[in-house]
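User: I'm writing a tutorial on reading structure tokens. Could you give me a worked example: one chain, its sequence, then its tokens, then a sentence or two explaining what the tokens reveal?
Assistant: Sure. Here is the example chain.
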Amino acid sequence: MKPATSAVIALTALNLLNYLDRFVVAGMVGPLKNEFGVDDADIGLLTSVFLVSYMIASPLFGAMARAMRRTAILGAGVVVWSAATIAAGFAGGFAPLLTSRAVIGVGEAAYATVGPSILGDWFPAERRSTVLAIFYAAIPVGSALGFLVGGLVSEWIGWRAAFWIAGGPGMVLGFLCFKLTEPARGAMDAPVVESQYPSTRPAESAPAARHTGRREALWSLATNAQWNWSVAGYAAYTFALGALAVWMPAFMQRERGWSAESAAIIFSGIVVVTGFLGTIVGGAVDARLARGRAATSFGLCAVTALVAAPMLMLAIGTQDRTVCIAATGLGCFLAFVPQAPINAAILNSVGSDARAFAVGMSTLVIHVLGDVPSPWLVGKVSDATGSLAQGLNLVPMGFAVAALIWGVGAIALRRRP
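And here are its predicted structure tokens:
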């Protein structure tokens, strides 16, 4: 098997486990509240503390990846997050559970930062949307498995076993990561025209990339129009998607009276089918229409996020079970379309030596402004109003803001000389 193909398969499988571990908590909100006597805001903190450590560690791993072997960082991160997930099943109190979630964030940051940059060095710019669509299609599958493992296993044999089952496979795959072939940095990059990627140093055509100082790298991103428009919209998008993933199963149970098993099976089924299809369709359409042009990618992302907003508003507001399922399905499909295009735009906005750093910094920004505050905010609104539906109304608002930012970004990039 070719090293590039092996990398796609391995990294996609790990991305599935990444999101399984991340969202296993969303499937067992009830058992955790009963076990530790906490409220909705505290449950939201389990996601927020994970994301705080995740976003803080991401730029650090991005900087490390500029000089270190990325597959080694990858393997270490997977082993750390898997061990921490298993440890969560032994938590004797809420504080140790919070600590384990924070450690999981560090491990996942190592993987999520270097993974896309490795794929970016195995494939040329015009193929990255397609490859990233495969890679990010694991997100809905892994998230759905997280809901199922958290919801069903905690219901059948206990929440502790759910953490053990979620963390076990990663311990095996993590050690296999060390054997992956490290791609040459920039080997697949063609010379980039400066006007096409504003404020970005062109990708190097020489085998050895020139490493820049951290201050210079930060300034390069701060003045990079494509990176900034990508990440600003991505932050609002992540705010909405993160809150939806954490709270929708609990909403179906509490506000609509569905059983825990029914909510877990239905929502996980919706996410895995529509999320997978939306991600693949987004990558395929972007590859055909945009071919590396960020303005076109932004337009695609803006349209789909804009239509997703009223669909999810309908899903939250309706009392009809069938309408809720249909609107949630269509909303999730549209919400996942931007995954591959926007991540390809981030990778294509910089040269090969800065790719991991650009991904790491984007991870920091989208989470500090996105799904770090959103699960907690939804929980606070729910506690204050006595209605989880009121809190979840923040979700369609987030998608609408993302659509606005990407739409303006598309116009701004098209107008640049």
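What the tokens reveal: Residues 225-254 form the longest helix (30 residues). The chain has one domain: 3-187+211-415.
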